[in-house]
Amino acid sequence: MNREELQKHIYYSDKYYDDEYEYRHVVLPKEMTKLVPKTHLMSEAEWRGLGVQQSKGWVHYMIHEPEPHILLFKRPITTPPSKYDENNFAPMESTKNKVMQNCC
């Protein structure tokens, strides 16, 4: 598959929250793993260059070494708390565990 075809298979999670940030993970097709830097977190220009499409303000904040094709993003909460989906608002540790169990 060429890069354009691979980009059509990028998976974007729903957002999930803690008290300070909203989070999401993006799962790249495994064929794109070789394009993900191993030495540093990506800048917005780098992840957009891979074909990741999301609104401004998201920061690639962690490398999930066992599965480098899963990109973890966060940004300060932009949605007022009254609009949170109760299922997506949880303490971060339990949310991370839930995400890693359900994402792949």
Provide an overview of this structure.
The chain is an alpha+beta fold. The protein has a single domain, classed as Cyclin-dependent kinase, regulatory subunit (Cyclin-Dependent Kinase Subunit Type 2, 2-Layer Sandwich). The chain has helices spanning 3-7, 44-49, 92-102; strands spanning 11-12, 16-17, 21-27, 59-63, 70-76. Strands 1, 2, 3, 4 and 5 form a five-stranded antiparallel sheet that branches. A hairpin with a 3-residue loop joins β2 (16-17) and β3. The model has no long low-confidence stretch (mean pLDDT 84).
In short, what is this structure?
With 104 residues, the protein is α+β, with helices and mostly antiparallel strands.
Poorly predicted regions: none
CATH topology: Cyclin-Dependent Kinase Subunit Type 2
Quantity of strands, as a count? 5
Question: What is the count of helical runs?
Answer: 3
Using the CA coordinates, give the radius of gyration: 14 Å
The CATH class turns out to be: Alpha Beta
Oligomer: single chain
Can you say what the CATH homologous superfamily is? Cyclin-dependent kinase, regulatory subunit
Q: What is the succession of H and E elements?
A: HEEEHEEH
**Domain module tally:** 1
Could you give a short account of the major beta sheet? Answer: 5 strands, antiparallel
Q: Bin the helical content.
A: 10-25%
Strand content bin = 15-25%
CATH architecture: 2-Layer Sandwich
How does the overall form come out from the CA principal axes? globular
Structural class assignment: alpha+beta
Mean pLDDT: 84
End-to-end span in angstroms? 21 Å
